[in-house]
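Input/output pair, single chain:
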Amino acid sequence: MSIFRKKTVTQAIGDAGSGDSSHLMKVLGVRDLTSLGIAAIIGAGIFSTIGRASFNGGPAVSMLFVFTAIACVFTALSYAQFASTVPVSGSAYTYAYVSFGEIFAWIIGWALILEYAVSNMVVAISWSEYFTSMLSGFGINFPGWLATDYGSAHRAYEEVQAARPAATALPANVLALATAYDQAPSLGSLKLIMDLPAGLITVLITALVYIGIKESRNASNLLVLLKLCVIGLVIGVGVFYVKPANWSPFAPNGVKGVLSGVASVFFAFIGFDSISTTAEECRNPQRDLPRAMIYCLVICTILYVLITLVLTGMVNFKELGVDDPLAYVFQKLNLNFMAGIISVSAVVAITSALLAYQLGQPRIWMTMSRDGLLWPKFSEIHPKFRTPSFATIITGVLVAVPSLFLDMQFFIDLTSVGTFFAFILVCGGILYLDAKGISAQSKFRVPYVNGKYLIGLGFLLLFGYVLYSGGLMSSIAEKPLIAVFWLTWAVLSVLAFQKNFSLLPVLGILTNLYLMTELGVTNWAIFIVWLVIGLVIYFSYGFRKSKLAKKELMPS
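Output:
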């Protein structure tokens, strides 16, 4: 029995058509899938985290969106080929099972569970910010202690106490959080503080996802249409208030400041992965999934770049360190009518991102359970609604409870490591499919560009430049993972020369790996803890219960 046992493409497709999961409803077309991708990509990223990234990097963050999108294009092409080859709901989990074996599939599946959960927590908290802002615009003051997390409120309270008597000079959001802490009821020595709107919206969206894919599809399409109209309005109105002087300096904190927003910016793009989780509910997954992935990525990149340039042109980047930057910028310019429209629309529009992620995660639970790696309960399909019912409920609980009590930045820091790892394995999986001749079965293929010489030549030129400039050792001392990046590129250069590797998947591996080097210690520490927990579960349950393990034990 081996932890590297693999599924064949035929096995993966056959397993998807067996058991309860064969009763999923096939109702999604390319328009629905593109809409779902836009729903996931343009959510909290454009309405919230884009402000934090711009605050650190200035207007140059628009170029970071382009760079990240390029990395995602290489990855999306690889996803698209896998989706056309193995049209199964498990996303990168299933692709890793076919390419690298069970242990890698488990690690990716476990990482995706974390990715989807924390992404939705960010979205839920962002939704809460805009919801309370909207209520305030209507003259309804929602209790502050019921609309924030304990840690943020306590830190703000301590900051105010330390700053007295000059506390009034502190930012308004800090004073508001300190007031919320002061006014919160107490249970003994503990203040009762929670983000109630974030928890409630998660419960409501989970209920919608539980009821059915048709209902979820219709809601997603409507919400995305509204979202695109609002973004078009923001760009159309905001461009008239742009002051080019605000774009100078373009990168005020240098490359380091721009790249510090990698976690926030990359978080915005991971949504295209969610499209592949609905493969078993598509009418023609092998044709429509690849198209939808490319369409939504191109549309969203253009919108992100335009929004970033408009926001940083309307006000100085130093003013964008807020959780509701779009509404804030228009309020700052006394365009309160526009700010009101944005706040109301954002409440509705961010809901679509929440919906997309809540659709994705239960289907990964379901696929892992169907393979025997998780308990059978997770693959149960509701007899009436045709959805993975138990997995959907568990997803709702895992998202709702933490979003009540923890802050947004904590979750942003959590989400990227596992995603980068999944993306790297998917790109590497294309090289495996090519080497084994499996790509011949693919209805969509990553365009082949022979990397035999280009990959090695690129390595020699760039590595030589870094050596010549004398920055190699200092960069490794600052970011130890950069050594892994150079070593990986060197190995890929040799293998590409030997096996004529396709260039685009290799570029996907390298760009994702480089972006990983920009993540902080917190990202890695928590991911490693999550990974250890996952490995304990795998070796205590999944390794023995795996369907492939049972086949190995059957007499031939």
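The first helix runs from residue 9 to 16. The chain has 24 helices and two strands.
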